[in-house]
Amino acid sequence: MTSTYHEVYRAWQTDPESFWREAAKEIDWFTPPKRIFDPEAGVYGRWFPDAVANMCHNAVDRHVAAGRAGQLALIHDSAITGTKKSFTYAQLLDEVSALAAVLADKGVGKGDRVILYMPMVPEAVFAMLACARIGAVHSVVFGGFAARELATRIDDSTPKTIIAASCGVEPGRIVAYKPLLDGAIDMAAHKPEFCLVLQRPELAADMTAGRDFDFLTLVDAARGRKVSCEPVLATDPLYVLYTSGTTGQPKGVVRDTGGHMVALKWSMWNQFGVRPGETFWAASDVGWVVGHSYIVYAPLLHGCTTILFEGKPVGTPDAGTFWRVIAEHGVVSLFTAPTAFRAIKGQDPDGEFIGKYDLSKFRTLFLAGERGDPPTIVWAQDKLGVPVIDHWWQTETGSPISNNPVGLGLLPVKLGSPGVAMPGYAMEVLDDAGHPVPPGKLGNVVVKLPLPPGCLPTLWNADQRFFDAYLAEFPGYYKTADAGYLDDDGYLFIMARTDDIINVAGHRLSTGAMEEVIAGHPNVAECAVIGVADEMKGQLPVGFVVLSAGTNRETTVVEKEVVALVRDRIGPVAAFHTAIAVKRLPKTRSGKILRGTMQKIADREKWTMPATIDDPTILDEIAMAMKAKGLG
Q1: 594 closest CA partner among 630, 628, 547, 544
Q2: pLDDT for 504 beyond 90
């Protein structure tokens, strides 16, 4: 009989080391852990400090040896180029081994860093696994990032090599990567010894003699080569993933090898309810933490088939693309961002495309990355007829902090909540002075130390910065930088980043609560609320709304209705007087709305173009819309 969530969570609380010792049995160790946790190691302690393993062995080799050689491991589905390609576990092993041989021949080895500057192509996955195979530390920078941003990552991680593609393919345009790569190397103080360049058929790149080598030529020459998996300590880094830093210097989140494997393997059944052999799809990108954890490593660790999707939820070619992929490949669970579903809902509000596809194998939808607003969740529940699970985590944690654990038996869904704390996470909500607040009261969401396996042990070459950024403000706790509250049942409600809590005439108000109200308007597809500086009240909220496709009402009428809705649901205390209809919202490539940048534009503060922005032209549109309303 499956243990219930409450039994499992209590088992972790009662004896955390025994809990993680048991979970670690799902991993093939070269040297199994004798010690589970060392509280004296690192900044706050280290997991499995004496264990030795290899991620690639666990994700690929062991499945081939155990009878999954002929099972599909990876499906590449490019809705943009109209191409599809599949790889069995045996074929994946061959591809990874050949690339590992190329890297080893050129002197890349254990502990060396490798930057991957790649779009959503199978070779990006091969490169991640090949680095893990030889013990090199990979750092994926999503292809198309600006040269200056790439240069800062080159200087911080000092890679021996960079593996890049000639281009990326976006709806209606081809993005040349090689000029950006060349510019970044020119700017960077550190120079890689060589680059491997994957020439895509859509656009060939000019090669720099003596430095650049053709990826496919070298890999083809190395086919059939056997490269064994390098034993690494569980505490050795698997990868460095950069997040934007408030100082302008990106933070290199370090992911260790052993703890990450244990946490991800445990999550696939217990949290996501997916069995080995089934097809799991995370519609994200490598280069973002969701792509690392749930496109590449977790599904392969679990023996699943994973989908690598190159496309958009709408426009490639229509709002039925997700349903087409689910139907064609027999997907049982989809993990994507709420913004993707808001886009689909905006283009197909009645869900007409859903009925055109056979979704009989589809069991569960998971949303994360932005707050899952109740109207979007209700729409998805109604149209799909499956559980829709909002859950919450961060680049820093590598897997969910809170979830509604499917494998442990679904708990009642509470709209607006990403669920309950997962084993490993002792959640608390504190006021700014560090005192606990009662259930239902908004405050700083924190995690009692130590963080569980799989969470970042530090930042790359920056222990003090790690301590200052995450541990210093609330001693004994990890600061999530999210604001929210816990209810009487232990459900967590994440309302906003702490930076998005606005102060209106002394009242601390959540922009997330206002967005939740606005999203309930029948003509609103997406929305964002920011706080704008005001001499009288400190800050005033301003809402930006994207209208649903097919809305033929006057925008000024909808804007007035949105203002009235917030006044009715939240009250005059919100002082919400301004709603602005816009064609689209500025977002990162991972789907997060750039509220901070919008706020700086509105407040006439100095701002820089975010490196992660999906389409820079949107900010010009937003600025013009603000000016029309007397802002910015």
Answers
A1: 544
A2: no
Query: Tell me: the pLDDT tens digits for 255-296?
Result: 999 999 999 999 999 999 999 999 999 999 888 899 999 999
Measured CA to CA in angstroms, residue 554 lies from 59, 225, 523, 561, 581 at distances of 54, 65, 11, 11, 10
Question: HSE (CB half, 13 Å, CA atoms) of 515?
Answer: 28
Q: Using CA atoms, how far apart are residues 535 and 481, in angstroms rounded to an integer?
A: 27
Domain chopping of the chain, boundaries: 88-230, 505-628
Phi, then psi, of 70 in degrees rounded to 5 = -90, -5
What is the rounded (10 degree) CA torsion for 110, 112, 118, 122? -10
Beta-bridge mates of residue 545: 527, 581
Distance (Å) of CA 240 to CA 115, 128, 398, 460, 487 = 9, 11, 12, 7, 35
- What's the topology of domain 88-230? Rossmann fold (3.40.50)
Q: Which pair of structure tokens corresponds to residue 413?
A: 């869904």
Gap between the Cα atoms of 198 and 123, Å rounded: 8
Burial of 248 (0-12, 13-18, 19+ CB in 10 A): exposed
Which homologous superfamily does the CATH classification assign to the domain defined by 505-628?
ANL, C-terminal domain (3.30.300.30)
CA torsion sign, 523 to 529 to 534 to 538? positive
Closest CA to 169 of 283, 85, 79, 84: 79
Alpha carbon 552 to chain centroid distance? 35
Residue whose pair of structure tokens reads 């593996």 in the numeric block: 163
CB 514 within 8 A of CB 312: no
**Which segments of 257-348 are extended strands (E)?**
279-282, 305-310, 331-336
Check whether 30 has a pLDDT greater than 90. yes
**Rounded distance between C-alpha atoms, residue 512 and residue 373, angstroms:** 8
Can you give the pTM of this predicted structure? Answer: 0.86
For residue 524, give the 3-state DSSP assignment.
strand
Separation between Cα atoms, residue 315 and residue 309, nearest integer Å: 14
Taking a C-beta distance cutoff of 8 angstroms, is the pair 404, 489 a contact?
Answer: no
Query: What integer best gives the mean pLDDT of the chain?
Result: 93
Token duo for residue 54: 């290899």
Q: Which residues contact 303 (CB under 8 A, 6 or more apart)?
A: 63, 66, 68, 71, 276, 277
Sign of CA dihedral 210, 215, 219, 220: negative
Secondary structure of residue 214 in the 3-state scheme:
strand
Q: In the block, which residue shows the tokens 């656009």?
A: 203
* H helix intervals, 443-594: 463-466, 511-519, 555-569
* Cis preceding-peptide flag for 49 (omega within 30 of 0): no
CB of 168 closer than 8 Å to CB of 135: no
Write down the pLDDT at residue 38: 98
Query: What residue spans of 122-191 are helical by DSSP H?
Result: 122-134, 147-157, 178-187
- Check whether 508 has a pLDDT greater than 70: no
Determine contact, residues 61/230, Cβ cutoff 8 Å: no
